Structures are given as structure tokens and as C-alpha cells.
Automatic annotation (TrEMBL):
Keywords: Oxidoreductase
Homology family: Belongs to the aldehyde dehydrogenase family.
The keyword Oxidoreductase belongs to this UniProt entry's keyword annotation: yes
Active-site residues, as the UniProt record annotates them: E248, C282
Organism of origin: Alkaliphilus peptidifermentans DSM 18978
Name of the featured protein: Aldehyde dehydrogenase
Chain ranges of the Aldehyde dehydrogenase domain: 12-476
One record GO biological process: gamma-aminobutyric acid catabolic process
Gene3D superfamilies: Aldehyde Dehydrogenase, Chain A, domain 1, Aldehyde Dehydrogenase, Chain A, domain 2
Annotated GO MF terms: succinate-semialdehyde dehydrogenase (NAD+) activity
């Protein structure tokens, strides 16, 4: 088995004592490698490196920083196939999806390589004829980036690209389940010629590494994607040093299909939104509200798509649905299905649990499942499932469904389908969500802001909005 290393100060290093953590293929259960089990000392070394490299990097011209990001973009595309295979092996998503993620993730490098040149200041007219007012934007400093397992490439580039463009240096902590994609990206960063210490990566004990990053006052910003529970914990830890925060947390996305919707289009978008990455995306739909008058037609269209989906190992040709990431995810998804059925929901398609541990496929697989007659008292209507289950709840009126859609502590993404522009604008404006798909089930793109309301987090990633969180605003008053 390959033993991988951490990347600190431009060097590939092991953890103290050589301790390691297994990395498993969720489709087969096989061990595919080992990563260093770093902890506080390794995290501190990475902070030292990032802080030491900060002055040189922040004073580099925007053009030079942009050129290096563009070089990294080119290298990611040149190595697309290798990165995609690594991602599928450690995360489980179908290879075709993984290829798409590499292209999507590389897009942030290209976008922010250009955005580095558009960090503009201001001059403001003064009330005093002898004074001049200037506003400067400067890099915030060392950034801690903690990324999740569900998008091992794109969540890294979405965080480090704006940080680097702004002139910040980075300490990256990738998810323990999927660190090998991060290792490959670090190899490409080294190959692209980034100065030593500008980007560092530590792996291992999440608790110890996170605690060290949060306690060190030299780390001025945390950018984190993960659960709301962990986000709140990190927020509390960061309070003593008053870090700037970007938190992209949990979701509970509604998908509304009105009676005037293009049903075929809505059904295709619903399946894409729900079953991409086996339902393991933060903006995956969790609640489907379908107008009573079109319910049967919509369900028929969805079933027609689901019956042709192929489930299996993502490395195999034609596979569209991969495994769940681990046993905990498997148990949670199964419990949501069981609870719904016990409370009166019916399985209109799927529902087959392909094992209760490790079966003939080796990993944790659940067949894409369509539930009907779902009600608001079921767990699946109130908690994020993060798996391949599509619950249908019916409604009659616009006011009713908007109220149901907004009845959540989360506010990341929402979707609705209608052919009425008037209705569309009214619904769009009233949905309490940071991302809204109006006749669109796949809204993510590098040039647009990504983030949520309420307990879905704070700050935005993507677009010109995404670089603002890595910049300090400095007001300068000059008395002539």
C-alpha cells in the first residue's frame, strides 16, 4: 500500500512517529492507501510555514499570482483523468461525475486568477478641502481551509483559489475519508511553481488539527464546508482570536413543482439534483413538493428515469449511482426510509437495501428510492438525508407550499419549476435561501456566489463576492 505524506513548507513530510490512517474505497471496502496521522505539532508547522511565506506572497503582483493560478488550472485539466480516478477510488462517485468535478473545480482557479487583477480600491470625496479619503483592500493573512469528503477537488479549489488570488497563504485540512485527491492537487501546486509555504496541507486528527488552527492568532480566517454542528463548534473555538469566518454548512433543500411546470423538464432536473453523487451534496434536494393535480404525471416521469439508472462501482463504465461514503451514512439513510414507511409512506420505486454491511458489491449501496404519500411528521421531511431517497409531498396552493418550503432552520438551496414569470418572481423573492434554481436543478458555477441563509452558514464562495472574505478593508485619511 502507498503511504502518502503531508505538504508543509514545500516539503513532503510524515507525522511524528510515522503514525498513519487508512483510506478506504467505499465501493469495495478495500484499503487503497495510508495518510499521515498529523496532529497539533504538524498543524503548527504548517501555520509557521504559511505565516513565513505571507509577506512575499502578498506583495507579489496580482498578475504573477494570477499566472500561477492559471498554470495550476492548466495542470488540473492536463491531469483530469488521473485526478478523477483517484477521486472515484476514495469517494465512490461515478468516474464521469468525477471528471466533471475536476473541470468544475479547475474553473475556480481560472476565474480567480483573473479576479486577482480586479481587487480595486476607492477614493471618496471629503467634506474637508484639505483632506483626501482612500480605501484599500489588502489580504487578510493566513487562511485555514477545512474541506469535506463529498467534493474532494472542487471544495479545495473553491477555497484556496480566492485566498491565493487575494494574496493570502493557506493551511489546508482535507477530509480524512478523501485526502488523496488533495495530495494530488498539492503535487500540481508544487509543479506549478508556487513559492514554498504559500499552500500547506496537513492530514490526520481532525480535532487536534482544528483546535490548533482555531487557537493560533496568526490564522486570521477560517473557511469551512461541513455540517452545521461542526461549523458551530469551530465558530466557538475561533471566538477567542476573532477570526473572520466563511461557513458553508448543512442544507434541507425544497424542490417545488407547480401545476403549470414543464413536467418532463422538472422530472429530469429533480433526478439530477437528488441523485448526483448518490444524493451526497449539500444542495441536493431533500423535500419534493408536487402539486396534487400533476403528482401522478410527475411520478411517472421520474420512475421512467430511475429505472434506467445503473448502480455500482464508479470505476465501471455506465455506472451512474455509486456507494454511500461509509456505514454511518448507510445507517442514516436506511433509518429515514424505515421511519417514512412506518408512518405511512409508500415506496414507488427502489428501496432495496443492497446490503447491511459488506455485500457482493463490497461497499455501502442503497438503491435509488422514490417515496410517495410523505407527510411533514416524518424524519425525512425535517432532516437532511444525504442519500439517494426522493420523498414526494403534495400541495394545493402557492402560499401553502412557500410556507412549507421555508419551514426549516436551513437556507442553502431551493428549487422550483413554473412556466409563469409572474409566479416565478414572487416565489423567487419569498424563498429564504441563498441559492435558488428557477427551472434549474444544477445552479453551481464558479462565477456566481454560493452560500446560505440561517443555519446554512455565512459568507459566499464563488464570483466576485467570493474574494471579499479574504480581504481587509483599510480606510486611509490624508490631511494635506
Amino acid at each position: 500500500m502507498i503511504k502518502y505524506k503531508m505538504f508543509i513548507q514545500g516539503q513532503w513530510v510524515e507525522a511524528e512517529g510515522g503514525s498513519t490512517i487508512e483510506v478506504n474505497n467505499p465501493a469495495t471496502g478495500e484499503v487503497i492507501g495510508f495518510i499521515p496521522k498529523g496532529a497539533a505539532n504538524e498543524a503548527k508547522a504548517a501555520i509557521d510555514a504559511a505565516y513565513g511565506a505571507l509577506e512575499e506572497w502578498r506583495t507579489l503582483t496580482a498578475n504573477k499570482r494570477g499566472d500561477l493560478l492559471k498554470k495550476l488550472y492548466d495542470l488540473m485539466l492536463e491531469n483530469k483523468e488521473e485526478i478523477a480516478k483517484i477521486m472515484t477510488l476514495e469517494q465512490g462517485k461515478p468516474l464521469q461525475e468525477a471528471r466533471g468535478e475536476v473541470v468544475y473545480g479547475a474553473g475556480f482557479l481560472e476565474w480567480y486568477g483573473e479576479e486577482a487583477k480586479r481587487i480595486y480600491g476607492e477614493t471618496i470625496p471629503s467634506w474637508n478641502r484639505n483632506k483626501r479619503i482612500m480605501v484599500l483592500k489588502q489580504p487578510i493573512g493566513v487562511v485555514a481551509a477545512i474541506t469535506p469528503w463529498n467534493f474532494p477537488a472542487a471544495m479545495i479549489t473553491r477555497k484556496i483559489a480566492p485566498a491565493l488570488a487575494a494574496g493570502c497563504t493557506v493551511v489546508l485540512k482535507p477530509a480524512t475519508q478523501t485526502p488523496l485527491t488533495a495530495v494530488k492537487i498539492m503535487e500540481l501546486i508544487e509543479k506549478a511553481g508556487f513559492p514554498k509555504g504559500v499552500v500547506n496541507m496537513v492530514t490526520g486528527d481532525s480535532g487536534e488539527i482544528g483546535k490548533t488552527l482555531m487557537a493560533d492568532k496568526r490564522v486570521r480566517k477560517l473557511t469551512f464546508t461541513g455540517s452545521t454542528e461542526v461549523g458551530k463548534y469551530l465558530m466557538k473555538q475561533s471566538a477567542d482570536t476573532m477570526k473572520n469566518l466563511s461557513l458553508e454548512l448543512g442544507g434541507h433543500a425544497p424542490f417545488i413543482v407547480f401545476n403549470d411546470a414543464d413536467i418532463e423538464k422538472a422530472a429530469k432536473a429533480a433526478v439530477a439534483s437528488k441523485f448526483r453523487n448518490c444524493g451526497q451534496t449539500c444542495i441536493s434536494t431533500n423535500r419534493f413538493y408536487v402539486h396534487e393535480s400533476i403528482k401522478d404525471n410527475f411520478i411517472e416521469n421520474v420512475v421512467g428515469i430511475l429505472k434506467n439508472l445503473r448502480i455500482g462501482n464508479g470505476m465501471e463504465d455506465g455506472v451512474e449511482i455509486g456507494p454511500l461514503i461509509d456505514k454511518n451514512s448507510f445507517v442514516k439513510v436506511k433509518s429515514h426510509i424505515d421511519d417514512a414507511v412506518e408512518k405511512g409512506a409508500k415506496i414507488a420505486f427502489g428501496g432495496r437495501v443492497m446490503h447491511s454491511g459488506v455485500n457482493e458489491l463490497g461497499g455501502y449501496f442503497i438503491e435509488p428510492t422514490l417515496l410517495v404519500d410523505v407527510t411533514e411528521n416524518m424524519i425525512i421531511a425535517n432532516e437532511e438525508t444525504f442519500g439517494p431517497v426522493m420523498p414526494i409531498i403534495t400541495f394545493d396552493g402557492d402560499e401553502e407550499v412557500i410556507s412549507m418550503a421555508n419551514n426549516s432552520d436551513y437556507g442553502l438551496a431551493a428549487y422550483f419549476f413554473t412556466e409563469s414569470i409572474s409566479r416565478g418572481f414572487k416565489v423567487m423573492e419569498r424563498l429564504e435561501y441563498g441559492i435558488v434554481g428557477f427551472n434549474d436543478g444544477m445552479p453551481s458555477t464558479p462565477q456566481a456566489p454560493f452560500g446560505g441563509y440561517k443555519e446554512s452558514g455565512m459568507g459566499r464562495e464563488g464570483g466576485h463576492h467570493g474574494i471579499e472574505g479574504f480581504l481587509e478593508v483599510k480606510y486611509v485619511s490624508i490631511d494635506l
